[in-house]
Structure formats: structure tokens, C-alpha cells
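hey so i finally got around to running the thing on that chain from the lab meeting. sorry it took forever, my laptop kept dying and i had to restart like 3 times. anyway pasting the input first so we r on the same page abt which one it is
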Amino acid sequence: MGPNPVKQKLREGKSAFGPFMMIPDPNAAEIVAGAGFDFLLFDMEHGSATLESVENCLRACELRGAAGLVRTPDGSPATVSKVLDAGAKGILVPHVKSAQQAADAVAAMTFGPPGARGINAVSRAANYGSCDYIEFFRESDCETLIMIQIEDREAVDELEAIAQVPGLDVIFCGPYDLSRSLGQIGNPAHPDVKSVVERIVATGAAKDDCVPGLYVGSPEAAIEWQQKGARLFAFGGDTGFLSKGAQDAFAAIKDLR
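ok and heres what got predicted. didnt touch it at all, straight out
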């Protein structure tokens, strides 16, 4: 598996930034990773990404020195193990609503004990069987970035219990789904939503072995939440980058037609 640069940055007290990736194409991944982001977060919860396309995108990340992370559609062992075997440096499990779900996610991502990740010592992550098996198991447990997403009212009610689950590296807040769950759909800046986001970030920041993360849409928002303790930021996304670039390019020539 090799060292995880994002996990190392977080261990050193630094922040890490990377966009959500909705376009399941290795060329797009290589272009975006080449911009200098710490990680790319490939989204299998939404969009058209398949295991095969994500695996090729992970290769592109490695070529450009960015960590390839994946948001899976769920936290099931079958889903998680396939994505990790493909070479993901970490996984974000969406819609975690209880401490038990959080513990199950940790178990699915680690060999343990007490983990329960299925053993595949000939996977791409294990260099197709050409590495030392025992060292691979140990390194995977040490370097895999284990992230859960808090984005539902039920999770907020269980937040303190979730935060006490051993093995979590990142408690990630999903402000848009959270706004829906709190009755303010599409308005994460609403005071009722923002106060809950602040609570989630503060809870994560209070832990010694875990950091809070969240999606931000601007550098100003990143600075604000960084000052409140957040350290892993999903910043923008490939579709937004492409859309803005296209709009800016067209605006420059539209009056010449």
C-alpha cells in the first residue's frame, strides 16, 4: 500500500485539501491531481463511477502524487474491501447515523484485530501478491484513512457516542444533506444548520486521534472552519472546475461571434 501522505499531514497537525471527483475518467483525475491537491475524493455514492473506473483513477492519482480517496455508496464489508483492494488510500462512508455503524465501518476497513476486513493478499493494493503479506496487513491498518460522514439528524443525536468509536481518523460533516435533514434544504448557511456543523467540528477537534473535515466552497470558508478546528477539506469538484473554466472561456469570446 505504501505511506498515506494525507494521513501523515494530519498526524503532523496540518490541513489537507482535495476536490470531489464525479467524472470517472483517469485523464480527468490526472489533470486535477496535477494541480497540486493533497487528495482526490472519488464519489461512488453519486454519479456513474464503477469499481473499474475508480481503480484506473486511483492509478492516475499515484502518477501525480495525490492520495486517491473514495466515498463509497455504503459501508458494507463487500463494498469497502473491493475499493481498498483496488488501491484506495482511504474511504469515506456516507450517512453514518450511529456508533454501531461507525464501528462497523472501522472493522470493514481494518484487518485487525479487532477488524474484520477480508484478506486478499494478491490484490492491486498488495502489489498483486509480490509484497510481504504480514507487512501489508500491518501497513494497511496503519495507513488507511478511515472517514465517516455525519449528515443526518439521527447522527447528530448520537454524535458524542460516534466520536468515541476507536479507529476513526476523520469525522466528516456533509453540510448539504445535513441542511435537508434539519429542514433547511440547500441552505447550509442557515443559523440552525451552521450551529450543528460547528458542534460536529468541535466534537471532532476535541479528540486526540481524530480530526474534523467538511466540504467547503471557497477559500474564505476553509479559513473560517480551519480556525474552528477542521483539517480535512473537500474543496470544490471536477464538474465545477470544468463548468467554471468553460464559462470563463466562453465569456471571453462571446462578443466576438
